[in-house]
Specification:
2 copies of one chain form a homodimer. With 160 residues, chain A is α+β, with helices and mostly antiparallel strands. Chain A is 48% helix and 21% strand. In chain A, the strands form 2 sheets. A 3-stranded antiparallel sheet of chain A has the order 1-3-2. The longest helix of chain A is centred in the last third of the chain and has 19 residues. Chain A is globular, with a radius of gyration of 20 Å. In chain A, 24% of the residues are buried. The model of chain A has no long low-confidence stretch (mean pLDDT 92). Chains A and B meet through helix 5, strand 6 and helix 6 of A and helix 5, strand 6 and helix 6 of B. Strand 6 of chain A pairs antiparallel with strand 6 of chain B, so a sheet runs across the interface. Chain A binds a DNA duplex (30 and 30 nucleotides) through helix 4.
DNA sequence: TTATTTAATGATAATAATTATCATTAAATA
DNA sequence: TATTTAATGATAATTATTATCATTAAATAA
């Protein structure tokens, strides 16, 4: 069976780039850390564990290349660092993010959700949408549950 | 009548900050350049025209302060520079952006458009939304019109 | 195969945006 | 008026990213 790496290799070849050992190591790190929103530095350190000879510049170059080919998405949560996410295979659109303002966790939404909104934007603003970025800032389910538990606890204490 | 500046002054006082001349000059620049997505450097240069003694660090500090107080929104279009937009008065939510991948223009959408999507996210992901960022990347109405005109032109030439 | 062109890499210097430091000034308060 | 505190300006420091350039690896031509 054709693996994800094989398909990425084909994508690279299609654009006349090669999948060098360094590029492959970088892609593997991204595959093994999906959903983790790694920075270039993060990727560099992880790649180094397996391939210590790799240079930071090569990691940057590879991430840039993968971004150009739309294999990864470069995202920015406003903390001064770019982060890189593998794009879902076959996904025309970028996935969305939920950033928790309490604990800092970043969750992903793979569902599109924006179809109706995009139809409106395309028509009303005569804007041909090619991609989108949607991030919600708020309180995640973990913090919500934690607060609910604390609340319950307090009530029980009061009843005593 | 109470002006926008007066209201911002009150907001600052409410958080026990003062509206110093430097801060006022910075806010005025933002007011006079709404919809322009200015970077800190842009703001600095504009403020300098009116108040040449101001320092870049003060502009950064002021923009940070205004961001904290949710008077401005700090945004990032992925070009390595933070940009600062005055938030619509009374707007609970951040406005959206249309970034043209051809000409680089950035247009704004003040309408919410996300109410339905947010209801789904709050329920399905148990996420309490406090704010959002939505940016569409694509081709703006100006470029679309230009292409349409070019197309028409070509057709006419062919008919000759 | 060997020579030659081209692509990719690693080390590191350069750049650019932002933040930290610190002495000075302005403002608020005692 | 004296004194504490907040804010500022100049500039150094930091940090992420990009550019440079000599070296290596790969692809292609002879």
């Amino acid at each position: 069976m054709e693996s994800r790496i094989d398909r990425i290799k084909k994508q690279l070849h299609g654009a006349s780039y090669k999948l060098t050992p360094q590029r492959e190591a970088t892609v593997r790190v991204l595959l093994e850390n999906e959903e983790d929103h790694l920075s270039a530095e993060d990727v560099y350190l992880l790649v180094k564990e397996k391939a210590p000879e790799i240079g930071l510049a090569t990691v940057y170059r590879t991430l840039e290349l993968l971004t150009e080919l739309k294999i990864v998405d470069k995202i920015n949560f406003g903390d001064g660092v770019s982060r890189y996410d593998l794009r879902q295979e076959g996904a025309a659109h970028f996935h969305h993010h939920l950033v928790c303002i309490e604990c800092g966790a970043v969750d992903e939404i793979q569902e599109d959700l924006l179809e109706d909104v995009e139809a409106v934007v395309e028509k009303r603003w005569n804007f041909q949408i090619k991609d989108h970025r949607l991030t919600f800032h708020g309180i995640c389910w973990r913090c919500n549950e934690k607060h609910a538990a604390e609340e319950k606890n307090k009530e029980e204490k009061n009843r005593e």
